[in-house]
Amino acid sequence: MKTAVVWFKRDLRMADHAPLAEAAHCDAAVGLFILEPAWLTSPECHPRHVDWLLKCLDSLRDALAARGLPLLVRTGEAVAVLAALRREFHFAHLLSHEETGPGWSYARDRQVAQWCRSQSVAWAEFPQTGVVRRLKDRKGWASRWQHRMDAACVPTPQAFKAARGFTPAEVALNLPTLRDLGIAAAPDTPPGGETAGQVMLASFLSGRALGYRRNLSSPLTAQTGCSRLSEHFAFGTLSMRTVHQATEAAIQNSSSRELSYGLRGFSSRLRWHCHFMQKLEDEPDIEWRNFARSADGLRAGDGAPMREMDRERLQAWCEGRTGFPMVDACMRQLLATGWLNFRMRAMLVSFAAYHLWLHWREPGLFLARQFLDFEPGIHWSQMQMQSGTTGINTLRIYSPAKQSLDQDPQGHYIRQWIPEFGSAAYPRPIVDERSALAFAKEQLYGLRQTSEAHREAGAIQQKHGSRKSGLPSTGTRTRRVREPDTRQGSLF
Ligand SMILES: Cc1cc2nc3c(=O)[nH]c(=O)nc-3n(C[C@H](O)[C@H](O)[C@H](O)COP(=O)(O)OP(=O)(O)OC[C@H]3O[C@@H](n4cnc5c(N)ncnc54)[C@H](O)[C@@H]3O)c2cc1C
């Protein structure tokens, strides 16, 4: 008799779900999601993440129950929850997807692996993205990604045999509320769950992708012009393979050249997703330390407490009151909605890293809390890339003034998010841009010219760099910095 627990993590869906398909062949199974205090209290977690997670669990629970599998949602440390469940249901198999998560989840997985060994529970972990475990270097990575994404999707099981006493009718399938979890309130979040993801995907493939490349960069057009699938990837309500295959099919069937042009641009970004996650998989401590050790100690806050002046700058940046209108408008959109397009995310980080000369870790934690789609591998790689600490990417400094000229020439976006813009209530710029950037460039270019930095760059490129042209070019081009007019009330 084969007994199993399907442990849901960042894979809250029915489709293309290998652990679920395996459970459908078992004689007795239950589904489990663990609300872990380590996550709820982590500095990356925000009430909006919990709110959205509960929506996703609600939809998954109903879909599973309709096929006879209960979804138990339990709160506690993973090993304690698994041990308690094993006393109720003596399972021999634990089925889950691989996870490339933050340090606490890596530590938890090691404890779970040890517990499984001590209890003779066989833990099977299945890949769900293009991330490859125990990879030596990036040779052949792109073709492995392609192979995985082109493989047939796992069929959705139609029926399960629940463990005795655990049929959906026999157990309480209530979900905790935010209040039960000690959260007083959360900002509005979009519709969650697999069906919401499918609706979003369909609307993108069938029409919204039409002007994708044109609409990507401006915060005015990106909100509807981008796919808006990132939170679905982050919580696994859609599988990367499903989206890849649906996109390729849409390209094949499209009679519009413009639509297929947009879809091809989108398709290449799906590979970027896994390319960046692979970096964290290969080097888990990039969450805390610089890719390039030669950049250690470059900015205050790197291994030493932040100075008062930096704390004040960080605070102004977090609240969207730096006195640089495009920066502040973007931050305010993010605070209100939990999403921002790529270019504006990069500009926010570039501003923190170069104009304010802040180390990436604290701004990165703040953004991680705000991004509903927080994906550690992409996030920490991008934080470092946009801060100039990877050692291999060309430094890219965004001028907020040029971004407003290019992306919001009429100032609609700025006025939408900064109602007090132009009045005495709007703050003056918190730094002098010209001298701040002169200082930043001198520090960084000086550092890069050392022989130690050159040697290190070779090793980083070997381990993390893409071998395929066409892979991430974002952030690798040099941008000339335009000196803006930062007079109070001026858009540019
Ligand atoms: C500092 C910084 C932090 C970021 N943090 C995250 C994060 O935590 N989670 C996250 O999903 N993305 C992150 N990104 C990448 C990117 O901004 C988002 O993926 C994108 O804005 C999400 O919106 P979308 O799904 O509509 O994207 P689309 O433009 O429609 O792209 C489709 C998908 O491709 C992938 N993708 C797109 N751009 C990138 C990129 N540059 N790198 C890797 N994958 C990409 C994402 O999975 C995205 O959902 C970050 C970018 C920066 C500059």
Task: Walk me through this protein's architecture.
- The chain is mostly helical and 492 residues long.
- The protein folds into three domains: 3-128, 3-Layer(aba) Sandwich (Rossmann fold); 194-282, Serine Threonine Protein Phosphatase 5, Tetratricopeptide repeat; 285-464, DNA Cyclobutane Dipyrimidine Photolyase, subunit A, domain 3 (Orthogonal Bundle).
- It has 21 helices and five strands.
- It has helices spanning 18-23, 37-40, 47-66, 78-88, 103-119, 141-150, 194-206, 212-215, 219-225, 230-234, 240-253, 257-282, 308-319, 325-337, 342-355, 361-370, 376-387, 400-407, 412-417, 433-448, 451-464, and strands at residues 3-8, 28-35, 71-75, 93-97, 122-126.
- A five-stranded parallel beta sheet has the order 3-2-1-4-5.
- Helix 5 (103-119) links the parallel strand 4 (93-97) and strand 5.
- Helix 11 runs antiparallel to helix 12 (257-282) and helix 12 (257-282) crosses helix 17 (376-387).
- The longest helix is centred in the middle third of the chain and has 26 residues, at 257-282.
- The chain is globular and about 70 Å long.
- The N and C termini lie far apart (70 Å).
- The structure holds flavin-adenine dinucleotide.
